[in-house]
Amino acid sequence: MQRTKVITRKTKETDIRATLNLDGTGNSAIKTGIGFFDHMLEGFSRHGFFDLELEVNGDLQVDGHHSVEDAGIVLGTAIREALGDKKGIRRYGSCTLPMDDALALCAVDLCGRPYFAFDCAFTVEKVGGLDTELIREFFYALSYSAGMNLHIKMLSGINNHHMAEAIFKAFARALDEATGKDPRIQDVLSTKGSL
Asked: What is the mean pLDDT of the chain?
């Protein structure tokens, strides 16, 4: 059974539609109106082997905040709902990923309890058309909507493009591991009996 979910969200600030397949091959069709954000999400899809279609129509005449944050809400909701009862998944995933000068660490726990820690000091305000401070906002919204523990730490880095890309790819790899099935797990990986 493929774990696929379609999520829509419409407010006065954004109109978003996403289709996520956790068991994909890394195909994507992304259109957010922010080129660098599209590039990051394409990398997430490709390196996590998630099929992702995402269209965001937001109030970019204001700035990118609502578009990026609401995309995080929608993607997090899609992850949570596509996982269903979480039976058989590994639950935990982590990745330390190099991207030239940048080295990012990401750890995920799909426990149902949201918690977010982010340790990355960007040195420029924008990369392409994306405000670098919105990277934190995206992952914060995603982690709370998905109900996951998410820790992101930049271990080293000079180039802000590389730093951002390392984060998105490390998250993709960690999430792929956490959502993956393990035949040894017959129910859910918890002493409580539920996640």
From this structure: 97
